[in-house]
């Protein structure tokens, strides 16, 4: 670590406690205990992977190659084509992202750059509350509020006005991709909004002030100075939201309609990876069925690891690490 | 060059659009809270908390066993999850600056985004398969595994809020590192750690997916960790997707109970945080 | 104080680094017992690092290391097998900003060092004695069990001095102890240093030359990590040997 002597003395870290003469026994024991606890996190992840693979093994052995190539899911006759679930997961997540990202970014900009300061604590309390509500309650609300509203109002309206697009055709049944996508949008909104807010906070004030000093309007300053600077961070926030959307189980299970088919219309009933696991795992017919479901979970796990890693790296690139409380 | 008027209009338009984002984000929250309270309240009574569920069509009955079950599940999860999560967080704050620490931190961050249903399968494989039946223990293990990554990161952030000058002051008095960590740093961060733990408990209480095929459900009272157990969340799910009107009513009431539990825990967390900050700054 | 008395602290060929940065370069000096040595110099000259080498606090900073010889009553602090923890009990330290333990009461802050080191015994008398020595007793005697954070900044700093005195150190290191305080509180701390030197050897780092002139018997001037000059305070301020010292004390730079 390079420090000019002019720099203020950094915080004493426990990490550099090693003196040339060996720390005493208590310090060694404490360090060892902490190291074990930290290592436990790595151990947990290892156990998770091994356990997943173990449960999935019967299906992997039986040849789960048809996972992504077939759309025929019939556990009783032993065909495990996962395409409808993958399709449903992708479609609902895309809908969720398309709806949630503009709203979240708008919200974050309004809070951080435009709106009255007094509003901030109120809105961020609301966002924290959204994040704290259990997903089964979102599902309940979706099933009894959102689905009827879609069936009776939004879907007929979209069918009348945008019905020339294949995605907005079909009978308005309420349950389906659109309902699942919208409820996911509500659920991932807090994640995207709060990470975006954090990212916006890291934009140097001088950038914005520079633009404003040139006579830019507030929006122009945002577009010219703030958004370009925070683009990578907003992308990271989006990926985090996407990761949540892919894995969200209960709310989707309750409103997607649970039909293992592939349909171009957003109004149609579909299925998703987590939903099929939730519905079938407890009553799976034999090891291969269980294994196939665990295989789907393994896919979900892998995709979420990749998305989350990418998201964290992007956010870190912008924010360069969490703000460390350094006291002089 | 665009005219100034046009630019001003554009500025106001975009501000209004962003403001709309706030409304669109908070509207579902308002609707959800209102409906849970207004639909759930009529079904609440003392017996709702104390009675067992009744079959369809039979009036009365409650979710007493589910409330107890959730309590047991969360308590069991805390036994494993809290020490590991808080401990890993203290490790990250105190010894987390090296390569090992950065690896653990990144792993925890990434793992905190893993879908909870995946962890449910892990608990199934680790507990249900060897025991040959569903049990509260399996669900509690899933909840504990879910607790650790998030809890460790939030604990770290809160322990790092303790000013380094306090650590220096203690070391300069000739107090060894480990005692300084335990008696000064962690003592000062106690309010924050309690906050982080309460939030983790609140999240665990609201989990459903990993319980579906670990604890399953139970129509009766159960206090044995090795038996299937009812939980509020799974009960809400079962009631909600049933085709019966009176079960729907119970779903809303149970949702209100769950919301009160989760809300109460969040409120306690806020109080703990405020107290710890209030007395230290 | 006769110059012939053996030094309380003798520093010989001390070097200190932050990572690759050479912050203290080959410094040698003596500190007389029961005297005040002021260490002055422009910011970044290594004076704080030097101070932290005297109780082995420097090595706690990531990348911090030191070589050379520092003896306390003839005993090398950097010799093999010396426990830095035991040194810090003999060489106390007061920091730039008051840092009382926020979770403890006033009385508990004073006795913290003793209690944390497992000392069992009557604490009330020690608390009172140290608070008296730190000239704080009269202000806090009626509220010993209020939180330490309820005190003003100047009172907190004197509380930190009392806390450092409670472990009965022989030497007191003070790192710009008054820089965060208002003029009245500063005057009290300076007064206190006069009283304390009857019992303790004091090394104080300060960026304030008037303060150095007021409180110290000897003054060391550091520049760019090097010790430029050390001598009686009066000499340093009126008739220094080195041009750089004169330029600094007369305000030509720094």
Give the topology.
The complex is a heterotrimer of chains A (328), B (281) and C (254).
Chain A: H1 25-61, E1 73-74, E2 79-80, H2 83-114, H3 119-132, H4 135-162, H5 177-201, H6 205-213, H7 218-247, H8 250-255, H9 273-280, H10 287-319
Antiparallel strand pairs in A: 1-2
Helix pairs in contact in A: 1-10, 2-5, 2-7, 2-9, 3-5, 4-5, 5-7, 6-7, 7-10, 9-10
Chain B: H1 4-40, H2 46-50, H3 64-95, H4 99-111, H5 116-131, H6 136-159, H7 164-172, H8 177-188, H9 190-205, H10 232-241, H11 245-280
Chain C: E1 9-18, E2 21-31, E3 36-40, H1 47-53, E4 64-72, E5 75-76, H2 84-90, E6 91-94, H3 106-116, H4 124-133, H5 137-140, H6 153-166, E7 171-175, H7 183-196, E8 201-205, H8 209-215, E9 218-223, E10 226-232, H9 233-238, H10 243-249
Parallel strand pairs in C: 3-8, 3-9, 6-7, 7-8
Antiparallel strand pairs in C: 1-2, 1-4, 4-5, 9-10
Helix pairs in contact in C: 3-4, 3-6, 4-6, 6-7
Structure summary, number of beta strands of chain C: 10
The coarse silhouette of chain B is: globular
Average of per-residue pLDDT values of chain C: 92
Provide the helix percentage of chain B. Answer: over 70%
How much of the residues of chain B is beta strand, in percent?
under 5%
Question: Distance between the terminal alpha carbons of chain B, to the nearest Å?
Answer: 52 Å
CATH class type of the domain at 9-103 and 170-249 in chain C: Alpha Beta
Provide a quick synopsis of the model.
Chain A is mainly α and 328 residues long. Helix content of chain A is 68%, strand content 1%.
If you had to describe this structure to a student in words, what would you say it looks like?
The complex is a heterotrimer of chains A (328), B (281) and C (254). Chain A has helices at 25-61, 83-114, 119-132, 135-162, 177-201, 205-213, 218-247, 250-255, 273-280, 287-319, and strands at residues 73-74, 79-80. By secondary structure, chain A is mainly α. Chain A has a domain at 82-272: MetI-like (MetI-like fold). The longest helix of chain A has 37 residues, at 25-61. Chain B has 11 helices and no strands. Chain B is an all-alpha fold and 281 residues long. Chain B has helices at residues 4-40, 46-50, 64-95, 99-111, 116-131, 136-159, 164-172, 177-188, 190-205, 232-241, 245-280. The model of chain B has no long low-confidence stretch (mean pLDDT 93). In chain C, helix 3 (106-116) crosses helix 4 (124-133), helix 3 (106-116) runs parallel beside helix 6 and helix 4 crosses helix 6 (153-166). The two termini of chain C are 31 Å apart. By secondary structure, chain C is of the alpha/beta class. Chain C has a domain at 9-103 and 170-249: P-loop containing nucleotide triphosphate hydrolases (Rossmann fold, 3-Layer(aba) Sandwich). Chain C has helices spanning 47-53, 84-90, 106-116, 124-133, 137-140, 153-166, 183-196, 209-215, 233-238, 243-249; strands at 9-18, 21-31, 36-40, 64-72, 75-76, 91-94, 171-175, 201-205, 218-223, 226-232. In chain C, the strands form 2 sheets. A 6-stranded mixed β-sheet of chain C has the order 6-7-8-3-9-10, sandwiched between helices. In chain C, strands 2-1-4-5 form a 4-stranded antiparallel β-sheet, covered by helices on one side. In chain C, strand 9 (218-223) and strand 10 (226-232) form a beta hairpin. Chain C is globular. The chains are: A mainly alpha (328), B mainly alpha (281), C alpha/beta (254). Chains in contact: A-B, A-C, B-C. At the A-B interface, helix 1, helix 2, helix 3, helix 4 and helix 5 of A face helix 1, helix 3, helix 4, helix 5 and helix 6 of B.
